[in-house]
Amino acid sequence: MTATSRRLLVLFLGSLVLWGATLAHAEEPEPGFKSIFNGKDLTGWDGNPKFWSVRDGAITGQTTKENPTKGNTFLIWEGGKVDDFELRLQVKIIDGNSGIQYRSKAVDKWVLSGYQADYEAGEKYSGILYEEKARGILALRGQKVVIGADGKITPSGSVGDPATIQKSIKKEDWNDYTIIAEGNHLIHKINGHVTIDLTDNDAKKRAMQGLLALQLHAGPPMTVQFRNIRLKRLKLAQGKKVVMVAGTPSHAPGHHEFNAGVLLLERCVNEVPGLLAQGYLNGWPKDPTAFDNADTIFLFMDGGSRHPVIQGENLREMHDLMKKGVGLACVHYAVEVPKERGGPEYLDWIGGYYETDYSTNPHWIANVDSLPEHPITRGVKPFHLNDEWYFNIRFPVESDHVQPIVQATPPDDVRRTQAAAEHPGRLETLSWAIERPDGGRGFGFTGGHFHNNWGDNDFRKLVLNAIAWTAGAEVPAEGIASQVDPEELKQNLDKKRK
User: Fold this and answer.
1) pLDDT tens-place string over residues 3-60
2) Alpha-carbon dihedral angle through residues 303, 307, 310, 316, given to the nearest 10 degrees
3) DSSP letter string over 359-388?
């Protein structure tokens, strides 16, 4: 083969690779959308098995004369709550009325209240926005509507002719349904036709987050089916999104109460204007979209070799999120990862980590007498608390970009590792923060062993400030205020042996 022939062959093969890559990209189905129904069974969904099943690859809800439902009943997606999103699915109905419930709340077992994208066998309500067990019809098909701050519902225009939209709906056949929720702006579509466009300015009654479910209506016998259910989370149109992950039960009662701690902090964060938190309990989220619109991620869980962040593909997923500038806050055991897998990543992502046989983890009273000036410390007063404060943390050799946040001097008799014992009397860093080159922010905090410490206002405020800061939100001058009743500390505790 001549030199010219070889060059032509290389160019030809290169063109084939480029063409293949272009074709693969062009055929990539719906970027950002992820399936939330496996097409086989109801894994990840919860509803009354008397009415819900999977038939021919579709979720099927059915009532009969012999098996009626006394009230509207719902099949609820267990993956997590939805906030800003686009949902695409196909639906088919024979008789009766149904719909897709979103940003809703549970009022009883398999019973929800909230926004509903209506769908029926008749010819009037498909595509409307109905609020189940609340404000009723908010927008009829073809309407553009604005709900005022005073709750007044005002049609403000048209998105199409209701009769024309109805003609596009195939009777007793599959139809494409789309729901888009961005902030307080809601849109429904059927077969590509916008059916409603609503802006909800009623801050007291609107919902910005809630459950996703499918409805089976009470009344005459009916059958409704749903398939090809795909969800894409959207960056919040209003505020910052905090994804909080609690580990599985661990240690003795009152120690490592990951679920109760996350639920308490989630409630506090959701009371802060401009922040929206979603907690996932009992381990790594099963929701494939969990982190897709996160501004920051909060981890409170067992670490070391069992750390969920290093299991399977989780480390790669986190790496991709960090490259996008997503924040990361790790509390207590969650700051410990193996030196070989997770250690290098943590040095980049949060600026340090607990290294086995180098760092140490005794129980001792940290006398935090002063705090540096930083958004995380705003409004936080010095505190003195007993906890399992880790120290002698592994930081980068060049650690100028790591900002110590909480420091205290432990007694020399708790310097249990050789590396820690080499520095008697040294002021130790118990919490730290970094601003990463990718634009993200990281935070490490070694306290949190004892659940009751979340009842301390300054301990809690510091962590809440850090959550807001890593999300890229502005921390108030006096820090994030919150109230925790002593009784709340007793709620949601894991059932453990004493």
Assistant:
1) 445 554 444 444 444 444 443 444 457 899 999 999 999 999 999 999 999 999 999 9
2) -90
3) SB---EEEEE----SSGGGTTPPPEEEEE-
